[in-house]
Amino acid sequence: MLEESTRKRNEILAVTITGLGKFLFMDFLNWKLPFILLAISAWLIYVIYQFRRNPEVVRQWGFRLDTFWACTKFLLPIGIASMLAFFAIGYFNKTLNLSWHIFPILILYPVWGIVQQYLVIALVAGNLQDLKYRNIGPSAIILTTALLFGLLHYPFWWLIAGTFVLALLYGFVFLKVRNIYALGLFHGWLGVFFFYTVVGEIHLLRYLEKS
Questions:
Q1: What are phi and psi of 172, to 5 degrees?
Q2: What is residue 179's predicted lDDT score, i.e. its pLDDT?
Q3: CB under 8 Å to 11, separation ≥6 — which residues?
Q4: By percentage, how much of the chain surpasses pLDDT 70?
Q5: How far is CA 22 from CA 14, 122, 173, in A?
Q6: pLDDT number for residue 44
Q7: How far apart are CA 44 and CA 196, in angstroms?
């Protein structure tokens, strides 16, 4: 039990270090691609290591299929409402830009969404819930996670605000039903349609290269 608690605390610390590394290597030094590749590779190795060591740990993180639909039912109404709002805003602002680029991005971007959900939602919100600190209840866990999720999208203030609100939802849902696949898919697809309807980006990857 003590070993598991230590692991969970170390994971939260590692996520914090990864977040600080984002500010240093991506925002300050502009080493975007090397940092992203290194961070994803390191965390992927860690997931594989834990899976081989104890598959139940990976299931606790939300890498599982049995809770996919239960999690999706929480997200679906908000997802549909958001999509309708995006298309309405895009139509009236003339920023609708649905090109063929959207199809490969709809496949690729949810992968990045899963990475984000794993690092921030599973390892921070999930571990804080499991550690059962007396002075940190569900509301504090959700708020802390949302603040971290939003700050990681600095320096784009509108993205900070948007992802903060979304992370409140993600944290609430995850503490009830743990499924990283559903959350990652939701975050990825919602992001894609937001960029192609509200922002009007021709290619989402152009934006990611600047972020």
A1: -60, -45
A2: 97
A3: 123, 127
A4: 94
A5: 12, 19, 26
A6: 95
A7: 29
